[in-house]
């Protein structure tokens, strides 16, 4: 995202374009309108695609559209200048196209923060090992020894979709050191982790730094931390389900009726809703609110990181058509505002709404307005919540920072053994509202 790589690639791309054209005004000046027009057309198509699908609630950097336009222009120069050009100029023109495309990709990555480093990009592209990754045989051997490791372990799991029939990829489970400390394992609390619109279950680990955060938290609490399950809400990288049931798959049923029972039965985590939470970024933030408010019998706390007011796949009409097959009633069943108002008074439910510093009150349809609206409605119906603004922008580094900052609050809300409840940022301890910690989760059967 930073450093010499983006600048160097973009500088070489500009140099390649200049060499491909050369100083031949008599040849290229008559063609400039066509070259510029096709470049602008490429940028306009990309802009329409982003806006039409509702891919982002924040505007993209102008340099992204510039590089897309230059990619279109480079392709046009390659075709128009091929005949009659020297062999070396043809090679440079051919090289300019992928260089401009890579420059656009680097600008896009700088916007969303999907690959913070070269290492994370290489790990994703090569399916390299994840932080703390282990296998079931090693985990079973450690669990039987009754000694807690210094760090947690990450397992890839295949969760049956018997209830939802949702076609999904392999998912991941993080087991903290405390899980290994006794046999059978303690009934620890669990947090469901959901990524953004374009996602894989490993994104929270590679791009969001979640394993480093949870390991450090566990180390500061004698190995105690919630179990994390990194779920697949899309089934494929570009399938935007918004965690609802509809033509794109029964994603909601998968998360509530496949994932939750699997974690309880296979890893012995607590089945009490007071010990289950949801953390989500961007689209996942919307999912976190939706899942908790729709299923207070399964979840009791959420962290919504820059989510929308409701499931979003374009305009309201487009969202209803794309996600719900045109059914307004189905849309209302997954609209958090409608769900909260219809449910009425909640008990023991709390939420952390995180917005980045670029969100302003002038943006009446953005994440800040959505967070304030949902939190106000939630408070009116018994949901203890706060809107927390932090420096940053709408990208994965911001999501990772919010997870680190909200984890002590969330772990306390879920009665994690050895973790004391803490108030929302800025709240006075005597005025803060939180659930009494009570006895540790693994000692409270039937709670």
TrEMBL record:
The keyword Chloroplast does not apply. It comes from the Bacteria. It is found in: Secreted. Its main location: secreted. Residues 421-447 are annotated as: Disordered. InterPro entries: AB_hydrolase_fold (IPR029058), Esterase-like (IPR000801), Mycobacterial_A85_antigen (IPR050583). Keywords: Hydrolase, Membrane, Secreted, Transmembrane, Transmembrane helix. The chain crosses the membrane at residues 6-23, 32-50, 62-80, 92-114. Residues 437-447 have a biased composition (Pro residues). One of its GO terms (molecular function) is hydrolase activity. Coiled coil: none annotated. PANTHER family: DIACYLGLYCEROL ACYLTRANSFERASE_MYCOLYLTRANSFERASE AG85A, ENTEROCHELIN ESTERASE-RELATED. This is Alpha/beta hydrolase-fold protein. It comes from [Mycobacterium] crassicus. The lineage of its organism: Bacteria, Bacillati, Actinomycetota, Actinomycetes, Mycobacteriales.
